[in-house]
Amino acid sequence: MDTDWEQVRSDFPVLQQVVNEESLVYLDNAATSQKPMTVLQSINQFYLHDNANVHRGIHTLAQRATEQYEAVRDQVRQFINATTANEIIFTKGTTDSLNLVASTYGQFIQAGDEIILTIMEHHSNLIAWQQLALQKHATLKYINLTKEQDLDLKDAAQKITDKTKIVAIAHASNVLGVVNPIKTITKLAHQHGAVVVCDGAQAVAHLPVDVQDLDVDFYAFSGHKMLAPTGIGVLYGKQALLKKMPPYQYGGEMISVVNQYDSTWAELPYKFEAGTPNIAGVIGLGKAIDYLNHIEMTNIWRHEQELVQYIFPKLLADPTLTIYGPPSVTKHTGVIAFNLHSLHPHDVATALDQDGVAVRAGHHCAQPLMNALDLKATVRMSLSFYNNWADLDNFLAALKDTKEFFNHELI
Ligand code: C6P
To answer: Global pTM?
Structure first.
């Protein structure tokens, strides 16, 4: 497909602004993505014309709201190729989705069982399992990195055993920029009877995701990282597993019958959607999926890879920078974490911001990974398909300015 990427960029109003007297260069897409006009309009449209609660009313507005809400569930199903819309649970985001699985599927964990994580997990896919392991007297083990800072598959093969009940792994790292070999891990986990919980937060807006092909048991992601609003996310779960799991929260719409002293639960997916959901968020998510589908995910991945191929070798060749993650351009997503000489990452990010460049600095909610790399923090630039070559050149120029500003003999 021949995409007009400048036209695409013009669909994102927030990008058309000046920050600190420079054109905004938004390279903090791993933290959250910007939103195209169609998503913003859909939210307005909902509140201006259709606002009503879902699944409750029989009046026209309630029916319109319910139809739109349920249509998005099926859109999500298609987007990730789930078998049925019953496997799509709307949540607040990746964190909420992962906590849902840990709190409910986690009830099947017993003392002595093993839960396997990778050392690169975001806190969302780490603390929930750590706390479950503590409560259940289960054992937590981490798959380490290779010397190249990629996932160590030999270590994975040693650590995933018949004692393993859960393998929780990021599809793509929010620091190292690697895409993990989920199919390989899933095959290994299933050979040992374990389920795989995949954190798709950093993957779903960047590459095509097919949950049946990956054969993951659960897949979690956030709307706000894929052009939709904050406060909406998705948990995909295989139907057979979701059916046997207890509810996550109790309240309206997740019930079948409520008696004074006991209750029964609604069918999937409603068993996991207690209370009034984020209806406008779901509608925005639907428009975001329309937008991504229109460009096509394979095309998005290809374009982002072209941007990476332009910037990554330049950063790698700069002796003043330390780059984290595998030093191979073909192994990198648009997430590139680095440090500039011995400067504090917050200082670097502040200096870049003076040139209108938005990046993130810190531990990126991955403290165990930082410890494993013997680091406190890094700077991180992260791309989206709406970034252009000028953004990358402006980023390089801002990096040069930063070195001059700190006068560190870095140039
Ligand atoms: N990472 C980042 O700047 P929420 O906050 O629930 O939408 O997503 C949590 C999450 C889970 N897994 C991964 C791999 C993530 O990257 C994130 C969010 C952002 O890296 C904010 S900390």
So the answer is: 0.98
